[in-house]
Amino acid sequence: MSGYMAGVLAILGINVIFAYGIYLTAAAGQLNLGGAGFQAIGAYAAAILSVELGFGIVSTIVLATLAGALIGFLIAFPILRTRGVYMVLATFAFAEVVVGIILNSDTLGGAMGMIMFDYIETPAVLWTAAGVVAFVFYLMSTPIGLAMRAVHDDEPVADLMGVNNRAIQVAAFASGGALAGLSGALYAFYFGFVEVQYFNAFLSIFVLLYVLIGGTQTAWGPLIGAAFFTLIPEALRIGEDWRFLIFGVLIVLMMIVRPEGIVTRDAIDRIVARLMPGDRRA
Amino acid sequence: MPEPILRLEAVGKHFGGVVVLEDVSFDVRAGSRHALIGPNGAGKTTLFNVISGVFPPDEGRVLLDGLDLAGVPSRRRIGMGMARSFQNIRLMPHLSVVENVMLGQHARPGLLRKLKPVGLLPKSRERDEALEVLDRFGLDAYRGQVVANLPYGIRKKIEVVRALMAEPRLLLLDEPAAGLNSTETAALRDFLMEVSARGVTLLVVEHDMPFVNSLCEHVTVMNFGRRIYDGPAAGAREDEAVLDAYLGTHHKKGASDAA
């Protein structure tokens, strides 16, 4: 595997994990435009734990993931008091606050960033990503996953069906924060360097696009969306000058042609029906 | 006389200055098929919302098996044996039929059960149970479809099946026959008779009077937020106040007065 290919695959792995972090909240009906904030928390937690406190790689990654979960849990309570576009703005503001704190903190290196001493290779990132994909597919297949999708579709009815909406939404934020934090820790170890400028508004927008363009109806969406967003720009490198223009046009086309995302339940049903005629999926 | 499964004691509800329910009291006997009827705007759906806990009553009490439901959150009531359907179908549009039905199992106890990867297992008790009920009510053909694409009558039935999945003792149905044709209505009545035969108490809001008369033995009539009749279904047809509410105050004097 060439160094370039390994690098692209590692970024793909990190983006897939990050996308699932945003997907978990989206699946329960909340749009999180603060992805970069959660990823920054994971990355900087990893930097402090590894560089300053001397933790090993595995324990650092586990603790950075938990840091993401804890912040996600705590931030869920004020954010869930808002609705719709205000929630999107609240999460966006959260990410800006995180970046602002890092930028003004000497301990966290401010605008200079922090250098990591330990590092991980592409296979470690990909195995972790595979584990996350398996976990999310598992979660979405359980009655809890079903309850999350019910909360997404109709909160009052989910409540009358016995679903604890608040608990589901808080858990979605916490587990989403965990995955975004995990992706940040992997990013830190893979690139060996964290700088706050990377965790900007564009990153939050892009990861939300991975999820929305991929589709929120099934666990396939973020996987396809992250792959689309990571691999297409690389494939478009041939026409370097036009690359971002072509990419932008592709996104607009996707939104027109498939407003519910690339992967929808209907699409999966049709594919399954074609592959296995006679077997009606349930 | 057995303890009523549901008792309403002087229930009142107002939204701002508008009084929607006033001093509504009646009992629903366990195992009965009880209709709640009245002209549009009489407060029937509001009463359903109070009973199911969507919002609390401003006055009075709602008792389930003699237990005051004040302070019991709406999501806990399904676990206490009360499930409901909605006037405008409220199925989850992005879930398949069988997933919608399985959502009705959510209130059953057991944390481990909630962690079971039902969607990935080729077979599970939860899914089998949902499929069996769908099969019994002739809905098997639709099981894998997303509900948004299904005909109205089918969705209406699925909503009732979903409520049944919670294994309720009291089933609240808000206009189950609305929008159904006569064949579908007859099938729904047979279906509800079967549900009733299994010991489930039915409280049904309905406008279709032939449907009510063929299904329910007991009727409560409401008008302008008040209970105006509570008794056997046959008696409602001769009750003065009920006739007034449905036909107008001068229904007896007729055209001669108007002339």
Brief description of this entry?
The complex is a heterodimer of chains A (282) and B (259). Chain A has 12 helices and 2 strands.
| Individual helix count of chain B | 11
Helix content of chain A: over 70%
Indicate how many domains the architecture of chain B comprises.
1
Radius of gyration of chain B: 20 Å
End-to-end C-alpha gap of chain A? 41 Å
Give the termini distance of chain B in whole angstroms. Answer: 51 Å
What does this structure look like?
The complex is a heterodimer of chains A (282) and B (259). With 282 residues, chain A is mostly helical. Chain A has one domain. Chain A has helices at residues 3-27, 35-52, 57-79, 84-103, 122-141, 143-153, 155-160, 165-191, 201-214, 220-235, 243-257, 265-275, and strands spanning 114-115, 193-194. Chain A is globular and about 55 Å long. Chain B has 259 residues and is α/β, with parallel strands linked by helices. Mean pLDDT of chain B is 89; it is low at 253-259. Chain B has a six-stranded mixed sheet, sandwiched between helices. Chain B has a four-stranded antiparallel sheet with strand order 2-1-4-5, covered by helices on one side. In chain B, helix 3 (97-103) runs parallel beside helix 6 (152-165). The chains are: A mainly alpha (282), B alpha/beta (259). The A-B interface holds A 137-138, 140-147, 149-150, 152-154, 156-165, 217, 265-266, 269, 280-282 and B 52-54, 74-79, 84, 86, 90, 92-96, 98-99, 102-107, 113-121, 126-127, 131, 141, 143-146, 162, 166.
